[in-house]
Amino acid sequence: GQQVMQIPQYQHVQEGEDFTTYCNSSTTLSNIQWYKQRPGGHPVFLIQLVKSGEVKKQKRLTFQFGEAKKNSSLHITATQTTDVGTYFCAGHSSNDYKLSFGAGTTVTVRA
Amino acid sequence: ETGVTQSPTHLIKTRGQQVTLRCSSQSGHNTVSWYQQALGQGPQFIFQYYREEENGRGNFPPRFSGLQFPNYSSELNVNALLLGDSALYLCASSLLTGATEAFFGQGTRLTVV
Q: Residue A53: what pLDDT?
């Protein structure tokens, strides 16, 4: 079945630095979604990418969908303490209602 | 706030017991999905309901079952609980099936002892 993998599992970042987290699927995706889960909270939708090679920005966050629609990345610039949490990518395969999540990248920030 | 509410927020059950978790979807959303999230893992898809019918199922045994009601609220039932069923159970509602944004509830933390 479809597998979604994320690296790194943990990201320890100095406040103000940039970092990137990566997502790879074993199958071609019809879309990729990114969610953020704060400690003790629930996943909150950030963005959805649908087109091959698509790039979207939300303030300091840049999301990219790969050309083959099997991988994605999230780049955060000038990390702030508010960026703490676990970032999940999730995707649908074609004609599949199942949303498959990666294991997440847990981000901690050193002030 | 997403408008998706789950109850109860926490629950402790004994092995072999049965449990029912409840979810009220966001107004106007006719699709509800349930996920199991073990500690340190991503949410795992259990099943999805659309207009009161099961619309897709993940790799969970039949002792995980569900219902969706005419008002689109939903229940997750788990029979013959195992220690390994201890997890955060998340409900997510969406406007349509398929590739649309999912709005998650705060979850039910189930502990099986």
A: 97
